Amino acid sequence: MLREFGKPLEVTNDWKDPECGPGDAVLKVEANGICRSDWHLWQGGWEWVGFVPPLPTVLGHEYCGVVEEVGSEVKRFKKGQRVVVPFHHSCGVCESCQSGHQNVCSDLQIPMFHYSGGFGAYAQVGRADVNLVPLPEQISFEAAASLGCRFMTAFHGVAHQGAVKAGEWVAVFGCGGVGLAAVEICTALGANVIAVSRGEKKLALARELGAVHTVKAGDDAAEKIVELTGGGAHVTVDALGIKETTLPAIAALRTRGRHVRLGMSGKEDKGQISLPVDVFVARELTYVGSFGMQAQRYPEMLRMVSAGQLHPEKLLEKTIPVEKTSEVLEAMSDYKTLGVSVINKF
Q: What is the largest CA-CA distance in the chain?
């Protein structure tokens, strides 16, 4: 439970169990990843876009588990079913939802804001028929938690928004969970990936996941990428979201290249980063944002996992009991985490 921003989370047995409305489901949580988005909310959220969690609250949005209860209106799911949960819960009926873009629903509901998140034994999912995804038996709960936000966000960003193609050069800036996921996904799509990070261990893991080159983050990173690719990357991915990754990623593009922004900014930038806009015009560059991934597109990703083309479990650094959650959040402040940490004991 988060009672005060920036302070250690409190473990309690007194938090009220989630209620199950007519269209809802309640899950017995089996695993939940700890994400940098949780870190941002722990620090106070993104007040410049209205994302500030009410206190007290239960964090966690990368959860999966077993259906414990369904409401009277739920038709597609039943008690005992294994499921994974996209973090953006949509209405299913607005214009965005009807056009297949549930991830940017006009009535979006997000765990941690609208109801308790997954850092607990039980969690609610609103409007369950459109917001739950069946989890294949061959995918473990720990691997499914690794998919939760970072992997699915990377998948939608590079496969759908960035439209990465086989043979293209893709430079991924920032090798945390979402960046490393992007490295593996782009590799599986047939792209040639260059990973950029200031951490040697993260670059080593990126190479294990398929990166053909790695570049140490710094003032000359963009120049090195242009040289390695013979003119610049076809696609660059900003997986961190700060100006120190955004601007080099744009500079590393070749003419008519595409830049995909996955990361949200932090308190220093507050959503405002100056961009070289004339370069976008003169070289016909594309800048595209990407937010999560709609539930209806999960099967595409899950099939690749089940077939052994994608391995989210390779990003799993460690599993922990819920009591250790604050330690992981604190380590994120100094970028000391590697891969994904998953809570699997409540």
A: 60
Residue 256 CA from chain centroid, whole number: 27
Q: Is 169 helix (H, G, I), strand (E, B) or coil?
A: strand
Closest listed residue to residue 235, CA positions, set 287, 275, 284, 184: 287
State pLDDT tens for residues 303-331: 999 999 999 999 998 999 999 999 999 99
For 229, the token pair is 């690719």
Look up residue 62 and give its amino acid: E
Q: Coil, strand, or helix at residue 154?
A: helix
Angle at the Cα of 188 from the Cα atoms of 185 and 191, rounded to 5 degrees: 90
Closest C-alpha to 173, from 229, 226, 231, 218:
218
The helix/strand/coil state of 340 is: strand
243 to 39, 163, 219, 250: CA distances (angstroms) = 19, 24, 12, 10
CA torsion through residues 237, 242, 245, 249, sign: positive
| pTM metric for this prediction | 0.93
- CB of 161 within 8 A of CB of 262? no
Distance of alpha carbon 233 from alpha carbon 251, whole angstroms: 10
How many Cβ atoms from other residues are within 10 Å of residue 195's Cβ? Answer: 30
